[in-house]
Amino acid sequence: MSDDNERRRMVRPPSGGTAAGRGMGQKIKTADKKSLSSQQWIKRQLADKWSEKARAEGWRSRAAFKLIEMDEKLRLIRPGSRVVDLGCAPGGWVQVALKQGASAVVGVDLLPVDPIPGAILIQADFTDPGVDQQLIDALGGGPDLVLSDMAHNTVGHRQTDHLKIIALIEAAAEFAIRTLKPGGSFVTKNFQGGDAGGVLETLRAEFREVKFIKPEASRKGSSEVYLAALGKK
Fold first, then answer.
1. Strands across the sheet with 185-191, in order?
2. Known catalytic residue at 214
3. Which of 73, 99, 181, 189 is labelled catalytic?
């Protein structure tokens, strides 16, 4: 894992950003007051079948279906599981973990997240000193599952953006390896074609099985893929 603290730091939240902005909170009636790109994002959200299904079923974001599919295939969440969700806004994965029977769920994000009954939600930079221990203390012990859907604000420079992606994966993986109970699992966002650096090799040494999975609910044309490490040794 890299010791470069600067690379490990998560990007600061965009000014005026909210958890709702990453979920279902936007309304098309406000589109005339927004930029063209924002209007296009809102229209895409409202037209997307997964977003529509999320609204109908009460999930906070379409991302809930990504975790539901991964859980069905990999049996990630078991009754009584303790779960940490890194980059949890707007809370869709927290909702899924609770519904699937997790006994304790702690989420952290740079953005504020509306309360979810049964979960502890912390607004903080996960990479700041002491936040990792704060998560474990709130959870009441080591987790059975660490989830990371963390992302960063791209700057448009491919190499820089790549380093930021790797930094988040490294930080999440280091936390998972250090805190997971034996037999526990770790899932993190990655991107197809993106080199996971030394993380993949490290995970293969620490877990029984490591695989990539692309949920159906990931947007078509997106390079998003998830890296799942199962069975902590």
1. 119-123, 104-109, 82-86, 145-148, 185-191, 224-232, 207-213
2. no
3. 189
